[in-house]
Design goal:
alpha/beta, Rossmann fold, seven-stranded mixed beta sheet, two-stranded antiparallel sheet, 7 helices, globular
Length: about 230
């Protein structure tokens, strides 16, 4: 598909543009293969599918969007997963990020605060045969302790601090990829690694713009509306 090839090319261009910030000149072959295999247009409202493979966010309803392909690819790469891993996603949104992760790991658990979005994401994933993704509606700040510890956790909303519950649910040596910062102010995409002594090591990656990670149910979604904004 011509549009898919252009999206992949745009991701590669963005990686080169930001290589001094992200510390790499290319994303992993596994991640790029996953980006190629997942039909992004299936996670976008029919009226907006002409924009499906552009390197930008697209509205999905409830004031939310499907994330920019470059950011989805970068966060997936930073998670540094293996095929045998079990990962947690905070902020299901349309289900697109979960679909990408499903190609990279054994099992994906995903939490969405907006019940309607969670329902739509389940429908998308089921229709496309992504059977290793389980979604529930709830407060992402609390994680999903029943299936912990996780081999990686990815958060698609900005938190003012790293939720301790997510650190507690992370395997030793595993990574948490999360944007930190306040709404409408400076935010930084960070990689957090849990060390054997329980301490965490953090790495700033890229300046970004995400909606806030919210508490409770049936408020606003935890998926980001904006593309990255490298400083």
């Amino acid at each position: 598909m011509k549009e898919m090839r252009q999206m992949l090319s745009d991701i590669e261009w963005e990686v080169k543009l930001t290589r001094s910030m992200i510390g790499k000149a290319a994303l992993s072959d596994r991640v790029m293969a996953a980006m190629k295999q997942v039909p992004r247009h299936k996670f976008i409202p029919k009226a907006l599918r002409e924009y499906a493979y552009q390197n930008g966010p697209v509205p999905i309803g409830f004031g939310q969007t499907i994330s920019q392909p470059y950011i989805v690819a970068l966060m997936s790469d930073l998670l540094d997963t293996k095929p045998s891993d079990v990962v947690l996603e905070i902020g299901t949104g349309s289900g697109y990020q979960a679909a990408i992760l499903s190609k990279l790991v054994r099992q994906v658990y995903s939490i969405e605060v907006v019940e309607e979005l969670a329902t739509m994401a389940r429908t998308h994933l089921h229709e496309l045969g992504y059977n290793n993704v389980e979604i529930r509606t709830g407060d992402g700040n609390l994680g999903w302790p029943e299936h912990a510890p996780y081999d990686g956790i990815i958060v698609t909303a900005a938190a003012p601090h790293i939720p301790q519950s997510l650190i507690d649910q992370l395997h030793t040596g595993a990574r948490l990829v999360i944007p930190l910062g306040l709404p409408y102010s400076a935010q930084e995409l960070m990689v957090v690694e849990k060390k054997p002594d329980g301490k965490i090591e953090t790495q700033d990656v890229l300046s970004v713009a995400f909606v806030p990670l919210v508490e409770g149910r049936n408020t606003s979604s935890s998926h980001q509306p904006d593309r990255h904004n490298p400083m």
